[in-house]
Amino acid sequence: MRRIRWGRLIRRSLAVCLTVVTLWLLLTGSAGVSLAESEAFVVAALRTELGDRGQGGPGFWQRLALSQSLLLERNLTPPEQEETPVETLEPLPNAQPAPDHDDVQDQPQITAAPEDIVERTLTPTGSGGYVTGAGLYLYNRTGLTVDLAAAARREVPFALAPAVEGPQILIIHTHTTEAYTPDGVDVYAPSDNNTRTLEEPYNMLRVGDEMERVFTEMGLSVIHDRGVYDYPAYKGAYTRSGPAVEGYLEQYPTIRIVLDVHRDALVGSDGTVYKAVTTIDRVKTAQVMLVIGTNDAGGDHPGWEDNLALAARLQKNLDTLYPTLARPMTLRQSSYNQELVPGSLLVEVGTHGNTLQEALAAARDFARAAGAVFLGLTGE
User: How much is the pTM?
Assistant: First the structure.
């Protein structure tokens, strides 16, 4: 005679009872809906039927069946085994930019082998240290007072002419020779610094080429300046790139957007080299940062708030399309030639710890998001 398994019989009887009660509640009123939506009730019913299997959890076939329910699948992992969030390492501030674009002095940057570089996705974890408004974050390195919500509402004081009338965007690189960490086939001969090179396929010109390609595919007209302004002397690069911008503006009065494209550098106080990186569509991608110059250092730049308004629009679209692509915007004391025309911004693509391929992925995504904003300025 077959032996009766009383434990299984009891569990199954209880499960049947619970099922009958659930069906009755569903048929007699809204209480059934509340009970059916109760995570505790569903899990209790599950354990009654399957039994409590301890830390080992359900077996393979049970997991296969339960994975069809998001609620039940979420309860397959014991709480102590759930992944914990990665803490931001100190002493690197959460999203603070390196002060290497003030163009005051040139110091060799600390480098590291790719495997020794620490990856970080630099996003705010709170409002501390930032100016906030309209869902945006701004790192203010000036003594100026900023109303970020008002900046986000501010109208951009220009419109782009249709591309058929002439160039709309100028891409320039004041620090043309800036480069990334050599990796794989992307290896270059350094110029005057171990993180810079005159080889165009590996410096900022290659990143600008990628932006130009995307903008052009979107129907925007672009001029990409290929001048070198930081070699053989790094100091004074903005003094040399400024006249080049003025020349283009005089020759092509349809230019309304000037993007000075750089890359940042992040080194902790202990010498650790960091790279700002995220993952977008399963592609490892460098983060970008918009830098807005001001007249806080005494320069003649009364229209910096117009540039901040444009930056706020760009940041908003970047955050919408690619939520972790952009680091918080940065407001700085120097003007960086942005006083020459409204619509001027400095764009930092990654850091010197990133690879070229990560930077190129960032350049493409940035150009798609920014291009959509620029097209809106033409009325298209």
Answer: 0.75
